[in-house]
Amino acid sequence: MSETRQLPMASLVVRLLRPLLGEKRAREFVGSNYAVATLVYYSFRTQHGKALLGLVWALLTPLLFIVVYVPVLGAMGMSASADSVLGEGRLGFPIYVVAGFVTWTAFTYGLQNGSTSLVDNPDVVHHSPIPLSILPLVKVLNGMVGLLVSGVILSIGLAFVGRFPGIRLLIFPGLLILLAMFTLGLALLCSALAVFFRDVLQILNSLLLIEFFAVPLIYLPTQIPEGYRYLLDLNPLSPFMELAHATFIRQYPISWHMLGLAVLWAVGTYAVGRLVFLRLERNIADYT
Amino acid sequence: MTGPAISVRGVSKAYRLYRNPGDRLRELLSPTRHTYRQDYWALRDVSFDVPKGRTYGILGANGAGKSTLLKILAGRLRQTSGTIEVEGRVNGILELGTGLQPTLTGRQNARVNALFLGLDPWRIEDQLDRILEFAELGDYADQPLDTYSSGMKSRLAFSVLTALEPEVLVLDEALAAGDSGFSQKCTRFIHDLCNNSGCTVLVVSHDMEFMRNSCQHLLWFEHGKVHSEGPPEQIVSGYLESFGGAEVELSNRPRYLLFRVTPEDPAQQLDYELQCVSWLAPVGSLREDSSTWRGEGHPFVHYGLQFLGHDAALFETFRAAGVLGVTQRTAREVWGPVRTIEEQPPYRRLSPHRGPGGVAYLGLPVPQYPLPPPSGIRMFGINELATPLVLSVQVDGAWHELGKFGTPELSVEQQGHYLASHPFDLKGLMDRFADSFVGGEAPAPAEPSA
Q: Looking at the structure, do residues B156 and B263 belong to the same domain, yes or no?
């Protein structure tokens, strides 16, 4: 068959899945995933393609973030107390900030671009037969590919300074999957609602502005006064941040509590987003 | 004769119009189920059958509900009432070039576009070579799209649809692209598809020649209803007669000058088109060599400029006018008398539901907004109008206003309208509307500066 020549990877996957799903369903499954993967690939390329430094920005942005934030926070005395907790010497806090920041970037990129993906592409919404949920999905996955790349670069960087996270990197795929589900749930919800009320996009941006400070990103959970720490449990993004920190910082405590919360938030948000999207989908083309 | 491939029974489609988003929220939250919306009926009780393997055409003025019907058939919109049955795999080409990205190359865009058109992912790599071969882009296939001229983009966009192997095809004004040679190739392709492939086709077009030659049966839509149907010859002549036998008042006709663009290879075509744009440029802000033209005017190189798609049509046009340097106030003053848009609810409030004809309908009047009256010659240039636009200009009833082309002052003797396009598209337009058809050659390309 000609496609065996053309799509070797996909054909291989089909062969693996054939006993499970049967030939036809395996081909359909792989075909649609191949389509999504292609769109994600080009979305990612478009994101970085025009920039002179391309992918280097995936590393450069968090580094710039350190340059700006760490001295300021250091002056406020936050990094000193953080370093002692994180146990990586003076590098502890910068690593903490970068690990959080790349996760934050992936989340906000996927959520913001996913939310506008329907209203910004009326031509696709009106004229293309593909399922509409692919548009936010592609943007969310684009963000996750960014996180994957940053994660790899960060790990290499950590190895250079003698702080390679080692076995802890096994948490990383889990983080990617859970965060993707969580982000996708929100993006599906927001993108569908934004079709009917554009205000959703403004509200979203304002909430993200607050969330940036509400989530332990430039401070440690332990730096929050004891009496207010329960607020972290209420913040849906904080368990994902915890996972990110636990991935890249060797001494960071892994709490099953946070992992459980992350799974709950991811599954719950995805389910709600999916349901709302399915409910509204039939009217989306009418209003885009 | 087998059963119908497309069966449409009593289909109606209402668009809900809200004066503002607040009304929508109020209706959603209303405990008494009070409605704040107005329903605009784009289709009312439409019924017809298309037998398997036949080609049916739909004609009618912009806003008659043609594009809405096709979107419903393609599964994108849902009808408010009635039933639709389609037998076989439907491919809808409602717009060329869905999802094209300027930073990707032609090849990459073909892949993305094919996915958006619903081509089986397993077949894309196979078809890619065929698509690019049809597009005749040469080495440009691996250049980013933003280096393409508008003609090349439309060639690429059209070529992707040659990869589809539909059982039922729904086409909205997507009949041809590019220069005359390529456009003939497109026409041949569509003609073959309609006549020899066994595919069932439902096509919307303003190209009466095509309707006569390729369709076996025509439906004439008016105000969302089937006005009449029958053999092509009869419907076309009835349709043309309905707005005064397609004759336009002679006194108000503008003058046109045609730049003929005759490319041999794509690279040369790009050169020529850029050349044309730069010839047009002196009329506007892209001023390059003012000595070429005396007087003022504005260039109009792309009619969909700044159309966002989700705004009310009126504001879309204001925005487009703004890009051309026309204030909203001026636009508003001129818009009223010039266009009948205020009487066109679907366009006023419901911009997203325009078909390609509708976008053209909104877009082309924009450059009619007068700039402050200059002394001497006034002109504007139009570069490479897409074929559907020109075709809708040709025959759509509302567009016969084009004969007057805006305000009377625009039709004063010295004023000119300069159009750069491929002769194939414009010949008919010229013959019909222009009192002095200057079949001029393209200005000789300047020697590349050392």
A: no
Examine the domain organization and report whether B170 and B301 are in the same domain. no
- Tokens 């599954």 map to which residue? A267
For residue B112, the distance in angstroms to the closest alpha carbon of chain A comes to 7
Residues B229 and B250 in one domain: no
Question: What are the pLDDT digits (tens) for B260-306?
Answer: 333 344 444 444 444 444 333 333 322 233 223 333 344 444 444 55
What is the spatial distance between Cα B307 and Cα A122, in angstroms, rounded to a whole number?
11
Domain's final residue, options B193, B222, B244:
B244
- Residue B146 domain flag: yes
Distance from CA of A272 to the nearest CA of B (A): 20
Residue B249 has pLDDT above 90, yes or no: no
CATH code assigned at B377: 3.40.50
Residue B149 and residue B256 in one domain: no
Of B44, B403, B397, B401, give the one whose Cα is nearest residue B239: B397
B84 and B139 inside one domain: yes
- Interface size A-B, in CB pairs within 8 Å, comes to 102
**For strand B416-421 and strand B437-438, is the pairing parallel, antiparallel, or unpaired?**
unpaired
Does a structural domain hold residue B448?
no
Amino acid (one-letter) located at B296: E
Q: Tell me whether residue B19 is in a domain.
A: yes
- 3-class DSSP assignment, residue B226: strand
Query: Does B221 share its domain with B266?
Result: no
Is residue B449 assigned to a domain? Answer: no
Residues B240 and B251 in one domain: no
Residue-wise pLDDT for B28-43, tens only, equals 777 877 777 777 788 8
Closest alpha carbon within chain B to A39:
B112
Q: Which of B178, B209, B244 is the last residue of a domain?
A: B244
Q: Contact A124/B352, CB-based, under 8 Å?
A: no
Nearest to A28 by CA among A17, A39, A41: A17
pLDDT at A148: 92
| Secondary element (H or E) of residue A204 | helix A199-214
Residues 88 to 107 of B: which have CB under 8 A from any A CB? 90-92, 94-95, 98-99, 101, 103-104
Beta bridge partners of A212: none
Q: Domain residues for B392?
A: 246-438
Q: In Å, how far is B118's CA from the nearest CA of chain A?
A: 6
Cα(A62)–Cα(A113) distance, integer angstroms:
20
In angstroms, the CA B311 to CA A95 distance is 45
Euclidean distance between CA atoms B50 and B69, whole angstroms = 14
Least confident interval from A119-128, B341-350, B436-445: B436-445
User: Among residues B83, B77, B255, which one has the least CA distance to residue B170?
Assistant: B77
Q: ipTM of the assembly? A: 0.79
- Report the residue from B76, B103, B125 with minimal CB separation from A127: B76
For the segment B91-138, what is each residue's pLDDT rounded down to a tens digit?
A: 887 777 777 888 888 888 898 888 888 888 888 888 888 888 888 888
B333 touches chain A (CB under 8 A): no
- Percentage with pLDDT > 90 across chain B: 3
Nearest to B316, CA basis, from B299, B303, B333, B298: B303
Of the candidates B198, B194, B199, B200, which has an alpha carbon nearest to the alpha carbon of residue B213?
B194
Residue type, B120: D
